[in-house]
Amino acid sequence: MFTSDTIGHFHPLIIHLPIGILLFGFLLMLMQHVRKVDLEAAVSLAFLTGSITAAAACVAGWLLAQSGEYEPSLVSYHQWTGLATTALGFLTFFAGKYRIWLAAITVIVLSVAGHFGGSLTHGEDYLFSSKSVSEIDQKAAFAEFQALDSGAVHSQVANTQKSAPMVFVYRDEVVPILKNKCYSCHSATKMKGGLRLDSEEFIKKGGKNGRVLLEGHPTDSPLIKNLLLPIEHEDHMPPKGKPQLTRREISILHAWVSRGASFVPQKEKAERQLLAVSGVPVLLDSGITSEVINSIPSQVQLEQQILLKDLPSIPAERVKVLQQKNILITPMKESSSFVTVNFVNVSAYESSLLDEMMPLEKHVMWLRMPDKPVTDEDVRKISTFSNLTRLHLENTTITDQALGYLKNLPHLEQLNLYGTAISDVGLRDLVLFPALQVVYLWQTNITEDGVARLKKLRPELRVEIGGFRFIKPDTSTIQK
Amino acid sequence: MKHSHPEEFRLHTPEFSELHRKLDRRHFLSKTAAGLGALALGGLLNTSAAGKSVEQQVLDALPRLAPKAKRVVYLFMSGGPSQFETFDYKPKLTQMFGQGLPDSVRKGQRLTGMSANQAVLPVVPSTYDFKPHGKSSTWVSELLPYTAQIVDELCIIKSMYTEQINHDPAITFFQTGHQLPGRPSIGSWASYGLGSDNQNLPAFIVLVSKDASKDQPLYARLWGNGFLPTEHQGVQFRSGTDPVLFLNNPEGYDGADRRQMLDYLSKLNHLQNDVWGDPEIDARTAQYELAFRMQTSVPEVMDTTREPDEVFELYGPGSRDKGTYAANCLLARKLLEKDVRFVQLYHQGWDHHGSLPKGMQHQCKQTDQATAALLVDLKRRGLLEDTLVVWGGEFGRTVYSQGKLTRTDYGRDHHPRCFSMWMAGAGVKAGTTYGETDDFSYNIVKNPVHVHDFQATLLHLMGINHEQLTYKYQGRRFRLTDVHGKVIQGILS
């Protein structure tokens, strides 16, 4: 039942016995000297039991160190000071003369050993870290504030364009997370799984089981993947019972990896964009990974399936260009790379706007451009938007030809064509739309015959022709 | 004791870091897309070392799944429409006409001062007939012949309840999640969270029927922003020549002049802002800019002259007369077409303590056709896919008659323990009924829906987690649903 491993695990438990007992023994000794009372027997008992438990702790500690997960040099200091404490303890017990001096040395050596032990478990800077960090923060914040203050008041213009501040995501965002949640097992002091995460070199090197970081592929990188596994899973990190990463922290790491895991500062805008539009897997809370979801095909709605795909984020510069042209871009959902694009604020539409959108051809899921002079040629450009699920072309100047361009869009579910010149000719193409569920055809040139044929060929398709008329109610029967 | 130097004091307090954070954030926001709400911004641009607490708040509230409803139109029937004469059909009451309300139903519940002193509480059935309509065979009163024709689009909730028994607290509760005034309206929360898609129109627009009898007053605070930044306040569009008061340039004042003036004013405001960091300066600047853009966008959207006759016929006789409920419904459609986030209509006059049969007939006649027409119009334009339509009042009415009961006349008192409302469109199950009341429509017997549940559901449909869209004010985080509210899963499609 008790393997050497499990005995080793008792070290942190046993260790507190000798610490307490030996310190108390020394205290008794001091009292004896000051108050002149006879505590000789008690002191002897304390140093005997203290030394015996210290010896037990040494054995357990030695076994624990065999796991190899601790930094060897620190282990060695801890080991020798620990053994010295034990030896000094026994010496004090047997000594007749100079007993109090021996006891004092024991306590000093004990404290040193204890400190090394603490460094092993909690990290070397555990004791003094928090204070210094906050001091640095405040200084930095003050400096930043001053820079901002003077810059903002004195030169508004220069401030807006020229200075693109650098942002260091690795240092400012990633390291604090790793430090809080990962370093306790994966750094210089403890190297579980042979893995250290406390510098670029070690993160890139990986652990016993190979690389943990595959730049640009968060879901393939164990560094991210293991965070997303169900908490009961053997490989889930941090292990059950340890402080877990928050969704926000996971999304930051995910975003950082998916953008190539840079270890150098980047331009501000680009980095902000990075963290924004890169995809965070949905359903983080439930711990379900995208692999699991992909294995349940038909149950999940098409749009949600698309949203799970990994897609590089839209370049920040592109977003800016489109926003300047009053094209509204909003993410489909939390930190998604997929977007809704809306032309509602575009006052002077021209087809060159669609050329500007070409870098987004995989990103656009919903596209709203009603009441604009959109032509068939423009629709041909839209037909490359491979993840499009909803398209609003109502009250545009498109004709039947446009439908020929759109028929190959694999995911198009909703198509709004009301108020266009679409006629029965276009229906031949409409029948072929692979994923179409709803089509709006009110105020087009489509005939009742055409609609009937369409419904026959695509019985599941919902066709809205806006033919609803109220039946004028006969109110005479209502009693007064 | 040594007194701290003011500079030193600022440096080491949370106020200092808060100010620093605000400045940094504002500086950043001012350079990016105006008009996007906190959530939308959080999605597009996110995370720096500074500004964490605000960003964190925003990030947490972001839609986890793509929202179903991009827009909402809320038809508020102010006064408390009776469920008995509209949707909650209670045939068993017919045999009980005039009998006292059994104690087993009332269970000693306190009544309002208006009917507590009545010697008897005579049960009164609806004087109007009900018939099943649509494929869903939903029972609808003969007072709503148009709504009956589109009933398959509706999800009727018969088990709404509230704690508020008087008008103002009840409406305030519905609109803001709290019965005391001062908190932001639902539309303001939506504006704060999601921003405005249309940068030329407010995200939250309010229309009040001019043709309703003003039995119970409405106050602008019902669409107020509370403690949210002022730009999230609902903007009321009026029916007269000036839809938005003081929007037009004074006579003889040129648009170019105004532009120049605003540009200069904006510079001054920025200077002031950098010194004081007061978010209200941002709000004011944004309002000026929006007002300038609205000088052209509002007349455009308010102009219904180019609507074909067929549209006016659809919405009914009142729709040509600006400011009526019917005209407001038509206008609401036009605003939604322009991607206005939240449009709220109010129609007063549903408070029928006496002469209820006549009153209900009048109210229904004024609103029934236009309400149904709005749904039909939204549907054929494809807007119902991502627009949520809500119809309802602040509470229900009693099964017993308030005042004298005759064969043809009766009244009903306020009843918060159950009432009916409906939702339609984006994300709700069409052609369904949710919840049940007992034979007296006095108590709920199945699936109760509290006002906070309704609010949670509304936000959910817009892609917002109601527990996470919060705003810190006076030292605590406020949310629309306070500490309550569950999303009503049973009505979601």
UniProtKB/TrEMBL annotation, chain A:
Q: Is Metal-binding among the key words of this record?
A: no
Listed transmembrane segments: 12-30, 42-65, 77-95, 100-120
Protein name stated in the entry = Cytochrome C Planctomycete-type domain-containing protein
Q: What's a Pfam family this protein contains?
A: PSCyt1
Check the UniProt entry and state the signal peptide residues, or none.
none
Is the Iron-sulfur keyword given for this protein? Answer: no
* Organism of origin: Arundinibacter roseus
Residues in Cytochrome C Planctomycete-type domain copies = 182-241
**InterPro entries from the entry?**
Cyt_c_Planctomycete-type, LRR_dom_sf
The UniProt keywords, alphabetically, are: Membrane, Transmembrane, Transmembrane helix
From TrEMBL, chain B:
Pfam families associated with the record: DUF1501
Identify the Gene3D superfamilies for this entry.
Alkaline Phosphatase, subunit A
Q: Which domain of life is it from?
A: Bacteria
Can you name this protein? DUF1501 domain-containing protein
Organism in which the protein naturally occurs: Arundinibacter roseus
